Amino acid sequence: MLERVTICEVGPRDGLQNVAERIPTEAKIAFIDALSDSGLTYIEASAFVSAKAIPQLSDAAEVYSAITRRDGIAYPALIPSAKYLERATSAGVREIAIFTAASETFNQRNIRATIDESFERFRELMPLAKSAGLSVRGYVSTAIACPYEGAIKPSKVVEVTSRLFDLGVDEVSVGDTIGAGTPAHVATLLEALSEEFERDRIALHFHDTYGMALVNVLTALSEGYRKFDTSAGGLGGCPYAPGASGNLATEDLIFMLGGTEFDTGVDLQKIVAASKIIEDALGRPLPSKVLRAMSSARPAS
Ligand code: MG
Hints:
Layout: E1 3-4, E2 6-9, H1 11-15, H2 25-36, E3 42-43, E4 46-47, H3 60-66, E5 77-78, H4 85-90, E6 95-101, H5 104-111, H6 115-131, E7 135-141, E8 145-146, E9 150-151, H7 154-167, E10 171-175, H8 183-196, E11 202-205, H9 213-222, E12 227-230, H10 250-256, E13 262-263, H11 268-282, H12 289-296
Parallel strand pairs: 1-13, 2-3, 2-12, 4-5, 5-6, 6-7, 7-10, 10-11, 11-12
Antiparallel strand pairs: 8-9
Helix pairs in contact: 2-3, 2-11, 6-7, 7-8, 8-9
């Protein structure tokens, strides 16, 4: 009996927001449509934010109007505040994500708001989102370490996560934004989270900066967590977190789970095909090791 592991694909949003090159809107649409064909059930497609804050995602409305949505797939958009909700819902967005951090300094540098100020924005946004029937995911970034403050206490992550659930979010994604966490850090964090929250309402968002993302997933699996954020090809990073490179690659997670009791329901070849669309648009290889291996594989002679 296989046990389901849910992949939350964040490449089109978290991945693309952090690339320097301009990606044509048509390539983003083709990328998302290819991802929709892979068995994924969650594809974070874009963000409705000021074009100044994230120029790379300023075509969000065009993207949403052109992608082919499939039944059974959520296509959430990141929204910073109530001001952007209308734009998102008119583009057909039915699920949203909101963003804060466990590190005060990171939040201020990243979204120019204290943690309390970000919650003031959410308090305005949440009733509107809920009355519109939207599901809401909350992000807690820098959950293990912060590029400015260093180690972050698990109690701080629990506190911010708890405030998000109190506001009515459906799920919280807890992120090791700079990828500095080791399995020991992850185990300590998850022990604290598991005391307070249902595991199935928490997703884990690992970065592969130090090559720890997969072992951190294994650690989380052994602690009973079954939901992980990944990015096709390992697309992305974080411009506000110096040294942060690459979300955990979707391909790498699927490949690692081969032969285990866990099944993602996602087709590895189809993720590779989707990643290649973005590689072509970027004109450079993406960091996923599995993508590299599968792209260079030649039949044995
Ligand atoms: Mg990320």
